[in-house]
Specification:
Blueprint: H1 7-12, H2 14-18, H3 26-30, H4 32-35, H5 39-49, E1 59-60, H6 64-71, H7 75-87, E2 92-94, E3 106-108, H8 110-129, H9 135-142, H10 146-149, H11 151-155
Antiparallel strand pairs: 1-3, 2-3
Length: about 160
């Protein structure tokens, strides 16, 4: 049986694909400034998202020292970025109930979903006002039911 070549493999090669890739919404990059993100915050956020596998499941990650080493940012910069991301509502960071020897925290990105959804819907409304998107398309995008489908869960995390 012949295995299909993915679009990712065509762009970057099979060896690169084997290391995985991060799913980060383009809106983070294209609207970084309007979202109020610094470059360091964006780097740290995307790095953390590279470990985010299951929707609504917090992740546990390495220490500030490891994050620093892997992002090329100082530990102080990584710490400031994490604090900024939490203050700005892009993620939640909690210490584990039982401290572990690595000093890792848990990171929850449900609030990122809510924040980006609201931001995107405002952009769509602006495009509608400017006549750059049809009423029907705007209605489809703004009336997206996926965020409502997880309403009870989201209500407890925002």
């Amino acid at each position: 049986m012949r295995k299909e070549i993915t679009n990712f493999q065509l762009k970057y090669g099979k060896a690169v694909q084997d290391f995985g890739f991060v799913q980060a919404p383009n809106i983070l990059f294209r609207h970084k400034k309007r979202l109020g993100l610094t470059s360091s915050e964006l780097i740290v956020l995307v790095y953390l998202l590279s470990y985010y596998r299951e929707a609504f499941e917090p992740i546990s990650l390495a220490s500030l020292k490891t994050l620093s080493r892997n992002t090329g940012l100082s530990t102080a910069t990584v710490h400031r970025a994490k604090v900024g991301l939490v203050k700005k509502g892009f993620m939640k960071s909690t210490k584990p109930r039982k401290p572990n020897k690595y000093g890792t925290n848990y990171y929850d990105f449900v609030c990122l979903r809510v924040k980006l959804d609201a931001f995107a819907k405002n952009l769509i409304r602006m495009k509608l006002i400017e006549g750059k998107v049809s009423d029907e398309k705007a209605g489809d995008l703004i009336g997206d039911q996926t965020i409502k489908a997880s309403g009870d869960f989201l209500a407890g995390h925002v």
